[in-house]
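Reply to dn_fold:

You asked what the input looked like. This is it:
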Amino acid sequence: MAAPTVPSGIGTPGVPRVLRAMNDRAALDLLVAHGPLTRTRISELTGLSKPTASQLLGRLAESGLVRTRSKERGRPGPDALLYEIDPTAARVAALSADPRGVSAVVADLAGTVVGRARVAADPATEGSRDRTARLVGKAVGAALREAGSERPRPHTTVIGTPGAIDPRSGGLRYAPHLPGWHSRTLHTELTEALGAPVTIENDVNLAAVAERHTGAARGHDDFVLVWVDDGIGAAVFANGALLRGATGGAGEVGYMPLPGAPLARGGPGTYARADAGGGFQSLVSVPAVCRLAGGAPLAEALADPWVRTETARRLADGIAALTAVLDPRLVVLSGAVPRAGGEELRALVERALTGLALPRPLLRLSELEDDPILGGALLSALARARDDVFDTG
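and this is what came back:
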């Protein structure tokens, strides 16, 4: 990480508040990136003098954003005292929703997960207007209780769902199989239920955020993550930013027409079916792969050489179409099918791509072991909370 360029002497009397706030944020970002640091090291990384760094750290400690830790061994004196983000300054919540319920984690401001919960959806409440808000509130509340949090609500919450919120209507699109999540006032209902800001984000986009942070897409600004699971989706990073589309539907490639698949006609309602009524999903989703093996479980199905080769061919057809339009530097395969098929499936897909598209992106398997949707939601929640909490201007 390159050291930020900060004018020296900031923090002394008479210096504009905005410059002091810039130094505060630079120091806080360094503590997030590197963990506990000494005053001397913070001074070196920011380019600030030691007295100015001391003033800055004292100011951040007084505001409850930074705390001290024990001295490093063999490093006597005040310079050996370690400074770190005070994790109790805020709590954030991250959630992943599916038709069966909601999974939630709560983390402190340093990013340590301190509470988890899973709440199943109650079919008896499916028609209830506030069903989703109560379900989310119950999951977050259970995770906060496990964390032993004295705060009754998180500072910031990010929820990953199939489909995407239409920026014009406020409704959830492309996810008819998620009952109770289609109210046009859903965002307001959730914010009121939690008493804190809520962001709803496409689940595959969040998986890509996690992959870019700690997985196979580290260091890449242009890549596509192809999610192959019960549902099919893609997340597109272009020039370091997520591509969302006019209605939030960029990456809904389950509908994509391909050779060998019926067209996904009939509108979004067909996507509730296991085969999406046609298109890419009807070829490579978990149910589709299992059907190739006569209904065998996924791992058993992909252990069969013919099923594995046919699945790879179908995946290559879809990836070739995406590559021809987007020309990504990297394609990451994620979800249950690539995880079950492993390196053998990846190699077969790579081989099948030969000649299908002129661009030849790198093809990698996801490197994330934990739930990538929850991981991406947590990263997004932490980024939003830190932007707010770290603002000392």
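The chain has a mean pLDDT of 87.
Hope that clears it up.
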